[in-house]
Amino acid sequence: MLPTADLLRLLHPMVAAVYVMPLIGIATYFAIQTRQRRLKTAAHEKTKIPPVVGQEHVKIGRYLTASVVGLALLGLAHPIFKNIRNNDVWNTDSFQVIFIVLMFIFTIATLAFLFQARQKLWRGVFATLSGMGLVILGSQDGVFRRGYEWYVSHYYFGMAAALLMIFSLAILPEIYKSKNWRRVHIALNTIALLLFISQGITGTRDLLEIPLSWQEPFIYSCDFANQTCPGG
Description:
This protein is mainly alpha-helical and about 230 residues long. The protein has one domain (about 5-220). Helix content is about 75%, strand content about 0%. Helix 2 runs antiparallel to helix 3 and helix 7 (about 155-170) runs antiparallel to helix 8.
């Protein structure tokens, strides 16, 4: 039986594999169907794709945004609170702990407000605030960012994907008003899809590198950049 600490560590990849990745596939399918129907309609050609496909794409896209941001927060929460516990941060700097908890609440709340916002100004405000919350939480101690290999970092790719999802949600009403915004939406979500694919690769790699709790004292004494360990 795995210790509780190791089971908690598996929550992030489990939710990603069981829920978020299938949702990405569904959203991508509806996106392709929506574009094909739009092109057929513009060319005055018949199509078997039902009109409701666009509404389904929007609905799944909104679910996906909430899921990706939630998954990012879940991935950040474990190392942040583990660092707080291991380094007794509450007794040395209780304000920092309170600030972190408030930032989690703040990020979730501003994302919820973004879902409800209708005016362009407020959509921009809440998208910016929720994105800032993610970035601030990602900069906390305990989060492994793989800065020495940022170009293949699970953290940076995941953060970029989450921010793109927030921005895509913010501009959603605009794609019905302007072809240019629709093109921006397609471009951003294509990039996001590539980032999601990279997350599957980097996430699998990181699972191989993350030690069990009883292995941590030795493993974390290693030099990851130079791939050497004491006595090795």
